[in-house]
């Protein structure tokens, strides 16, 4: 997985709460047996009208946010299914950071396995960022090392992150390789249970 | 120190712990299906790794299998997922109940049915409804595909210890009110993210009186309240359910296991991080009217108005849900017409669910404007239902009687609700597009779905049942 530390981009304001994984990646796109290629289907039924044309009212189709790598949304982002296709689609589309007041547990976990940084800020801070982002393209600088999000006006928002996952993301580590180093503990546990 | 059942099971499974790190937790049972496993097996192959404990894995096919004209799969991509799972299970030595195997079914229905699910186990699957298995007093949770690969390779997971929550359901369930109504009422009352970061233990008189199948319905939808897992302490009901099941301990071993299982129960005086309470006496048969499972009400209620909500985010969520659903603020729930009925899913497709629906429709007929299907949760459930004549009751009433699978719960196969049409569904999610692009889902219990199938709109199943009883 690709390491992540500094991310600079305009934010994409997705002004919704409870964005579920069925919206992030709809079930008709879960049949691939690869991890890649899901980006074109991200938020498919919001991005496209039933006739396949672009829904110009949806934020991802707004020219101001093209190329953005930071998604900002309201509470409980990623609720619902465990499908890792959701973070795969987010990453494949180009986002590296998702900022919200809260995340659903499985989605949150899945982000860390894929080099996506989920950042929790307060509801008031999110409201502020969404307002700025909707008004005009608004640039953010995220530093994982410093645990900060800095707005283009210089305002700094601090965030907490589990130190274990911070290290994983900064280094882009493969978790299985790390766990294999605990083989003796695993074998001992199995012996004791037998 | 007094401990909750959650802490007891957790502590028994810690392989390694260190300050500043999540716990390395041992996994006792890993269930697999065709949709979330292919990339995990491919990862093993690329890194030249093996499945560490194939004997602790069990696989089946459920998400995209057809429910009629087996074994033909029209969708070539779905077919590829099916054949990929067959190939992976063979290569890595994992036991598989394939599409036409007598043990096949929805993964969360066959685990308990086969006795693989047992109290005190840690159970994972690449599916959020893994919480179902918590009904037995196990810690069971859904994981992503990277974690599936991690468990296949190491039989462990790094997990931060979740907080604990007790949801106490006091009182007694009223006539015509079911386990599905309890869990929908809990989610409506406390919200779809109340459980985030927690494992829930459901307690109280109303929970104790439930059968194992009803308990599974409750635990199944823990994830719809945002919880990592939900469980119910094991008791005589649990033990009697498991006695004699194929993969449960047998004979004297079973009695010893049963003693250990009972000892797992939460100690008197153990503290939960949070305690919530709801009174079963006040719960009515439920219907959801919105686009997440908390947007639901008792059948005698009407759809709320934006004025009932405090924040602008909530008001706008209500408006956008009602726009998607084609409904108006203040409409009585009984005025909503339906075109489809789906009785199925890991929430409500066990034998007692089919029995409850059959009791309502026996001698009646599906409304002419409604298409209704029954999809048994497993091949075993299907056979049992056929043996006791339930299938005939459904067929005589105008339902289609199908093969088992996830089917219209998430519409990955051909069982899709058309855009703009409305379905009374016994499944677990009413998200936009869940049952098909533009489809409108209302979550209900099996008996409420059956009553709606006959009436062509939502009705209070208590009135229907009362009429039968008189």
Automatic annotation (TrEMBL), chain A:
GO biological process, one term: L-leucine biosynthetic process
Quaternary structure note: Heterodimer of LeuC and LeuD.
Family: Belongs to the LeuD family. LeuD type 1 subfamily.
Enzyme class: lyase
Pathway(s) the chain acts in: Amino-acid biosynthesis; L-leucine biosynthesis; L-leucine from 3-methyl-2-oxobutanoate: step 2/4
Organism whose genome encodes this protein: Sporosarcina newyorkensis
EC number per UniProt: 4.2.1.33
Protein name according to UniProt: 3-isopropylmalate dehydratase small subunit
